[in-house]
Amino acid sequence: MKNLYLLLLLALTFTACRREPPLHLYDAQPSETRLVFAELELDTYWDYEIEPGVKYDWRKEWYYGWDDEDRQLFGEQGYTLPNNFEIRRYFTGDTPYTPHTRVIPSTIEGRIFQGAFNYGFWDMLVFNQIRLIDGVQSLNFDETTTLDSITVYTNQSMAAARYQAPRYTHSFYQPEELFSAYEQAIEINRSLDGFEYDPERNLYVKRLNMVLTPITYIYLTQVIVHHNNGKIVGVDGEGNVSGFARWSVLNSGRGGDDPITVNHFTRWKRNCDMEGENVDIAGGRLLTFGICEHNCNKLKSYKEVKEKNRHYMDLKLLFNNGIDSTFVFDVTDQVRRRYKGGVLTVELDMDTIPVPTRNGGSAFDAVVKDFEEETYEFDVGGGARKSEKVKK
Fold first, then answer.
1. In sequence order, what are the residues at sequence separation of 6 or more whose Cβ sits closer than 8 angstroms to the Cβ of residue 144?
2. For residue range 296-308, what is the model confidence (pLDDT) as tens digits?
3. What is the pLDDT of residue 240?
């Protein structure tokens, strides 16, 4: 079958909740064409309707802020625009939507792609390269189990995952920011319908408007402490949120069916402003593969989220007497309503929480946290109430 040499222009639009305006070409040269990516704004991903007519605005809920130290520790607050991409092309002959038998890998450097194609149908997968300053990458790509899809996952960390992780004793590393776009049945026909001829370069051009959507989702975590008065003096620097997917499929964007606990870093800030009130906040940035068995980019309402897993957020707080204590909060409803990412908030009223005096460090009792012989049951969004005594 004859090879056709053409330039395939990938108009890669970034969106997770709505399609942005198409990308524009500029500064065309005889030997190459450069693509301009749309501006990527944080609110493109987080300002979405949690249900028809009800818009979620993360800014109204976020009090922790994001300073230079946060950027050094956690990275940028929101998504950053990738510049280099991996391409996987699959030729299916004269029949579209058939299983893949061979893959042609390529890399886009500087957003340019040019290649040779046979007449027939092609599937194409595009995803961004992971480039880190320290070179230590958490993401693993499985491209060998099947050619029909690529699965991405992370491995277990050294942090314990005692709660809602029955299959795993440790939490998992959070993934890096990852986007993908997948299109099937791209037709390269002999009549060249849908192509433009470029006489200067003597090749045909086909423009594809592939939509890049997040495979990983950003959650900002904050535990707001009211009336602290120096009782809590810090955090140990780590936190966990349970119930997210262990892996995801790049082609479909669907999270796996295996729930895990995801580890992330946290930081303690004193004297933050919350609508005129002086509060202390433990905050952090968490990246996950999202809710199990869902492609959250395709959801139109939180009511479409169908999962049986619950989501618990835990972190270890350090008290002024040298004792640390692990707090665990049920954030299931918040995660489901913020199915494309957003802010997870817990509030503690220290006027109702005593400083622990028990020897031996911290205990871990999930949503119910005990001090001495009394149990304090925490409600997401406010305070604590004393419950029945428990035996030690």
1. none
2. 988 989 999 999 8
3. 94
What distances in angstroms separate CA 135 from CA 106, 160, 175, 316, one per listed residue? 21, 25, 14, 29
Residue 169's CB: how many other CB atoms inside 10 A?
Answer: 10
**11-68: pLDDT as tens digits:** 556 554 433 333 222 222 222 333 323 333 434 456 677 888 888 888 889 999 999 9
CB atoms inside a 10 Å sphere around CB 50: 19
Where do we find the tokens 């065309």?
28
Better pLDDT: 226 or 25:
226
Which H or E run includes 68?
helix 68-74
Burial of 352 (0-12, 13-18, 19+ CB in 10 A): middle
Number of H helices, E strands in the chain: 3, 29
Distance CA 96, CA 176 (A): 33
Q: For 310-347, give one letter per residue: b (16+ CB within 10 A) or e.
A: bbbbbbbbbbeeebebbbbbbbbebbbbbbbbbbbbbb
**Could you give the CA distance from residue 152 to residue 367 in angstroms, rounded to a whole number?**
31
